[in-house]
């Protein structure tokens, strides 16, 4: 009986071309003997990066020299296009050849994951900050933040679970508006299919494809056929061949499925975003990572743009770990004109963030929650440098309202009485 290896190379390159043209809805150009090229159907290809060639073993193979950087055989292409498992892809190819019986390859494709490997991976919260502040990137992040914010604001019923989740965490409508919080619907969303932002910019992109690059460079869109990323099995299955334009077919919103929180610097310029699932499973934060931008200074301090004037006035800052810790303190402090809180978005004050605080002439550092030793070192070093004090507001039990713990502290914030706490 024939094996899969036998039928894999059973078609000549000239015979396989029409099949692949129909499969992928592309037209090849014959460049020379045993060599065909076409624009790659799996990324936004402006050239003809998709190549068909015959290797030393006489096997017809497919290669993308562009963004995909992939090298595939016919079964891989069927898997990618049809979202089939390896076994079914072999079957489809055998049927095309009219081979009734053959021995399946029981292994797996070396490059295309099986469909059951489809869970979206979780990544911890991360940071991005261009080494050189780039006006274009700031404008693009701003654009995206406003887009997601408008989407959330104008769909209160449709995104009810998101609104309810935020309300439960103390983030009400006024706060959503004030912090420009938004929502990027998931791939499973029937209207947006994880591409709300891409669909929103598509009319502009079709006139000027360079606009797409700005969003891609800012880390706001995800290339779905990137075999090098964690979760390729999940993302590659989101490629949508019903879409004719290469952008919304091959890319999705980076923050799809997440509430989006833009991060501002002290001058209220957007420096990044964090995304968080509106449900509590796994690690819920999504790392925001701009393409080809080195992860550098981790100087994010959530809320610093609102806190800066008060920090200067009271020479005091309350540092919290998480975003929702921040909002708990925000709700408590804002009505008292003592909004001196910022979140490090992690249990460590980085040297870069410490430098920003140093510029605010702080005397009293109040570290809320039990930070580990590393976190303590970071904040104590910052305090030593500016000749200030550190107060630890530890021992908050799970579920305990930070308000109870904070009330005496807040009343002590007056610029001098804190040291008597
Ligand atoms: Zn490609």
Automatic annotation (TrEMBL):
SUPFAM superfamilies: DNA primase core, Zinc beta-ribbon. Keywords: Metal-binding, Zinc, Zinc-finger. Signal peptide: none annotated. GO terms for cellular component: cytoplasm. One of its GO terms (molecular function) is DNA binding. InterPro entries: DNA_primase_core_N_sf, DNA_primase_Znf_CHC2, DnaG_primase, Znf_CHC2. Residues 32-99 form the Zinc finger CHC2-type domain. One of its GO terms (biological process) is DNA replication, synthesis of primer. PANTHER family: DNA PRIMASE. This is Zinc finger CHC2-type domain-containing protein. It comes from Desulfosarcina ovata subsp. sediminis.
């Amino acid at each position: 009986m024939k094996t899969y290896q036998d039928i894999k190379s059973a078609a000549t390159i000239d015979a396989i071309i029409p099949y692949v043209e129909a499969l992928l809805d592309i037209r090849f150009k014959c460049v020379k003997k045993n060599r065909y090229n076409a624009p790659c159907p799996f990324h936004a290809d402006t050239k003809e990066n998709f190549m068909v060639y015959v290797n030393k073993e006489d096997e017809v193979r497919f290669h993308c020299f562009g963004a995909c950087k992939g090298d595939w055989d016919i079964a891989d292409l069927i898997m990618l296009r049809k979202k089939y498992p390896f076994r079914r892809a072999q079957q489809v190819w055998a049927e095309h050849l009219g081979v009734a019986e053959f021995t399946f390859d029981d292994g797996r494709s070396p490059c295309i994951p099986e469909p059951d490997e489809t869970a979206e991976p979780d990544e911890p919260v991360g940071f991005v900050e261009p080494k050189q502040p780039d006006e274009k990137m700031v404008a693009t992040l701003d654009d995206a933040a406003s887009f997601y914010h408008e989407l959330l604001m104008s769909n209160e019923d449709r995104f009810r679970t998101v609104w309810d989740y935020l309300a439960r965490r103390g983030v009400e409508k006024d706060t959503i508006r004030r912090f420009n919080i938004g929502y990027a619907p998931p791939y499973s969303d029937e209207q947006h299919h994880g591409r709300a932002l891409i669909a929103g910019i598509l009319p502009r992109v079709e006139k000027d494809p360079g606009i797409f690059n700005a969003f891609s460079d800012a880390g706001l869109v995800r290339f779905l056929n990137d075999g090098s990323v964690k979760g390729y099995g999940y993302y590659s299955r989101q490629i949508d061949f019903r879409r004719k334009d290469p952008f919304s077919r091959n890319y999705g919103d980076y923050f799809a499925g997440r509430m989006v929180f833009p991060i501002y610097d002290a001058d209220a310029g957007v420096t990044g975003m964090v995304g968080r699932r509106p449900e509590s499973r796994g690690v819920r934060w999504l790392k925001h990572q701009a393409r080809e931008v080195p992860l550098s200074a981790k100087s994010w301090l959530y809320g610093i743009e609102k806190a800066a004037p008060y920090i200067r006035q009271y020479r005091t800052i309350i540092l919290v770990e998480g975003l929702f810790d921040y909002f708990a303190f925000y709700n408590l402090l804002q009505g008292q004109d003592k909004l001196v809180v910022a979140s490090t978005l992690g249990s460590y004050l980085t040297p870069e963030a410490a430098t920003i605080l140093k510029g605010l002439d702080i005397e009293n550092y109040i570290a809320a929650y039990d930070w580990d030793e590393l976190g303590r070192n970071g904040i104590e070093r910052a305090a030593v440098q500016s000749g200030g004090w550190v107060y630890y507001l530890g021992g908050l039990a799970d579920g305990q309202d930070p308000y109870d713990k904070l009330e005496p502290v807040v009343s002590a914030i007056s610029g001098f009485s804190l040291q008597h706490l």
